[in-house]
């Protein structure tokens, strides 16, 4: 809506038929009626934000414009000016609630007009104008909000440009101004309270390091079978990582950390120093590891200390390079010493904690503050003998193929072949020439296939199936969780195993979004692409975009290779990733509506690749330059 149309509408609001005439009380009209810019979080007119480190663009905040202490108001118009070089309006809301100024009244609402296009960096004043009137015209007294306006910060603060500051001004002298009128069209006096916006850069706080047991969970006894006690499968290691080390901390060592575990389940075999601190220690390190009984029942402790030696000539830690980043400070080796028959299971924490309440020490021999440690967990599943069948996907390595009883497999994309193997044993020995039944169930609970196969000399039965793809709405029946049930009769007793896996797009584009609503010719158009996948194992892909102009002429193409997937056994959870690609808008592009199309590919078709999922699209404006 242009300003002329808005002005006409607001004028109509002011001359609506008058139903009744009430005398105006001059004394009441002179009360302190105000129109105010209010921060709903603080209740005042300030919008102050702190940005630690460079950034700030993209943050949003809500502004409420209130009328307070009104006596006789049937119509209002609000004109709010702002600095459009640093702010833009992204949402406007005036859905009435109990605190709205015209709550409970029928109204005619003029839609907001927003002028916030920045032209060549000048004309910094943005403006939003809106208005409402009761209908039929009746006077309203009291206080209430008129609109909730969401602003987005469009400019970053940096160390060298550390402050953004401007006012949210309620305009009283201009073409469009704030006004209050009663039902007879009489102007009502008022004061204004402007808003004050400020975004201030601050030096980022120095990160705090922490210790972490890696992996966070150790699970033994999978896939299920004979006892592992006394075998090489019972031995494992965990690493103690230090994370988030900032060189400004001038870390010289870990004074003391203590590791606890349950000694009825685990035996400590060995421990040795990791490479992290040694890589920063020009004069070497002092490594201490002491094993002691600990107060908790069935617990033992390992105390570890690692200190970098100072310069022997000066006795000072006068290093040129200080520890930075993350790495392994210690490796600890354990052996499982207890496992009982399934369904027995047991677990215990592999708990790391400071000996004297502190971990890290700096070059001034002062304690370094730290984030909470991240402990590990040990789980062991009971052994199982006798009759057993395990169905799994052989093309995926353990644990991604569902190896073990009632386990889950990594995902499959539509129409892929799913090979199925079932391992049949009795007392951990292969059972040959047995008929194994495979039942395949789709996400709707419908049986789509039943197959039977003999076990071979290794006790393995094999079959496979292709994932269907119906003509009508295939994703409605194909996408989701599939189930495979395998069973076998071993000496008049039927045993079975379940396997579940997800069918979804290999990689799905969630969205492609222009960074700006419009781009000029001869400037770079930037687009943010977000993808997701259920894939547990790592894979490689190409994200590509193609940009069309208003006449559907391709004006640019860009791509980026990526690695995707969780890289760990995390069932039925999306892995998300966002990247940005840019395409220059050529001088010869046709102005108007531009289109961007995003795809994710295994590779380009000319290199035997194909699409991993459907494309996504968005529009933006192409405008002339200069």
Any descriptors?
626 residues; 3 helices; 41 strands; seven-stranded mixed sheet; mainly beta; Immunoglobulin-like; globular; 4 domains; eight-stranded mixed sheet
How would you describe this protein?
The chain is mostly beta strands. It has four domains: 3-202, Immunoglobulin-like (Sandwich); 210-381, Immunoglobulin-like (Sandwich), CATH 2.60.40.680; 387-503, Sandwich (Immunoglobulin-like), CATH 2.60.40; 508-623, Immunoglobulin-like (Sandwich), CATH 2.60.40.1930. It has three helices and 41 strands. 32% of the residues are buried. Mean pLDDT is 91; it is low at 1-29.
Largest sheet: 8 strands, mixed
Strand content: over 45%
Mean of residue pLDDT values: 91
What separation lies between the terminal Cα atoms?
25 Å
CATH class of the largest domain: Mainly Beta
Low-confidence stretches: 1-29
Over the alpha carbons, how many angstroms does the gyration radius reach?
34 Å
Q: State the domain count.
A: 4
Q: Got a strand count?
A: 41
| CATH topology descriptor of the largest domain | Immunoglobulin-like
Q: What class, by secondary structure content?
A: mainly beta
Gross geometry: globular
Helix share, percent: under 10%
Tally of individual helices = 3
CATH architecture of the largest domain: Sandwich
């Amino acid at each position: 809506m242009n300003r002329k149309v808005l002005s006409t509408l607001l004028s109509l609001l002011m001359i609506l038929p008058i139903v009744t005439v009430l005398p105006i009380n001059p004394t009441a009209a002179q009360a302190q009626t105000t129109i105010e810019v209010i921060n709903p979080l603080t209740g005042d007119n300030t919008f102050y934000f702190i940005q630690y480190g460079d950034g700030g663009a993209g943050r949003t905040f809500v502004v409420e414009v209130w009328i307070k202490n009104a006596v006789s108001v049937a119509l209002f118009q609000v004109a709010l000016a702002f600095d459009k070089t640093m702010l833009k309006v992204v949402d406007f809301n005036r859905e009435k609630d109990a605190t709205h100024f015209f709550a409970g009244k029928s109204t005619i609402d003029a839609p907001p007009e927003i002028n916030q296009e920045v032209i060549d960096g000048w004309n910094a004043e943005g403006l939003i104008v809106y208005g409402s009137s009761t209908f039929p015209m009746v006077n309203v007294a009291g206080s209430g909000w008129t609109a909730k306006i969401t602003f987005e910060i469009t400019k970053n603060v940096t160390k060298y440009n550390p402050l953004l500051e401007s006012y949210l001004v309620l305009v009283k002298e201009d073409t469009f101004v704030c006004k209050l009128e009663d039902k007879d069209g009489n102007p009502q006096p008022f004061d204004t309270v402007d808003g004050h916006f400020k975004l201030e850069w601050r030096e980022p706080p120095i990160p705090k390091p922490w210790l972490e047991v890696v992996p966070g969970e150790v699970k033994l006894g999978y896939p299920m079978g004979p006892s592992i006690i006394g075998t090489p499968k019972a031995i494992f290691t965990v690493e103690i990582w230090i994370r988030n080390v900032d060189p400004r901390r001038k870390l010289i060592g870990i004074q003391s950390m203590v590791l606890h575990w349950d000694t009825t389940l685990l035996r400590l075999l060995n421990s040795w120093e990791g490479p992290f601190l040694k890589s920063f220690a020009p004069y070497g390190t002092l490594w201490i590891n002491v094993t002691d009984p600990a107060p908790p029942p069935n617990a033992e402790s390992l105390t570890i200390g690692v200190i970098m030696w100072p310069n022997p000539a000066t006795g000072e830690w006068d290093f040129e390079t200080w520890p930075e980043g993350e790495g392994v400070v210690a490796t600890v080796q354990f052996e499982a010493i207890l496992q009982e028959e399934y369904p027995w299971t047991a677990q215990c924490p592999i708990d790391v904690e400071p000996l004297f309440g502190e971990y890290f020490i700096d070059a001034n021999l002062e304690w370094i503050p730290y984030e909470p440690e991240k402990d590990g967990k040990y789980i062991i599943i009971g052994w199982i003998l006798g009759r057993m069948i395990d169905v799994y996907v052989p093309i995926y390595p353990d644990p991604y193929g569902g190896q073990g009883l009632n386990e889950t497999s990594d995902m499959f994309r539509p129409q892929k072949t799913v090979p199925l193997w079932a391992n049949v044993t009795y007392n951990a020995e292969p059972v040959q020439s047995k008929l194994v039944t495979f039942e395949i169930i789709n996400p709707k609970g419908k049986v789509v296939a039943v197959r039977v196969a003999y076990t071979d000399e290794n006790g393995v039965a094999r079959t496979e199936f292709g994932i269907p793809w119906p003509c009508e709405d295939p994703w409605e029946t194909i996408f989701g969780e599939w189930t495979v049930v395998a069973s076998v009769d071993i000496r008049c007793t039927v045993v079975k195993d379940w396997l579940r896996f997800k069918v979804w797009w290999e990689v799905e584009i969630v969205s492609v979004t222009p960074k700006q609503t419009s781009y000029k010719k001869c400037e770079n158009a930037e687009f943010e692409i977000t993808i997701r996948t259920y894939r547990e194992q790592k894979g490689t892909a190409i994200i590509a975009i193609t940009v069309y102009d208003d006449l559907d002429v391709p004006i640019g193409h860009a791509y980026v290779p990526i690695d995707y997937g969780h890289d760990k056994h995390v069932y039925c959870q999306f892995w998300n990733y966002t990247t940005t690609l840019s395409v220059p808008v050529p001088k010869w592009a046709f102005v108007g509506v531009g289109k961007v199309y995003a795809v994710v590919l295994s590779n380009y078709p000319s290199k035997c690749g194909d699409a991993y999922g459907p494309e996504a699209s968005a529009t933006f404006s192409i405008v002339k330059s200069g």
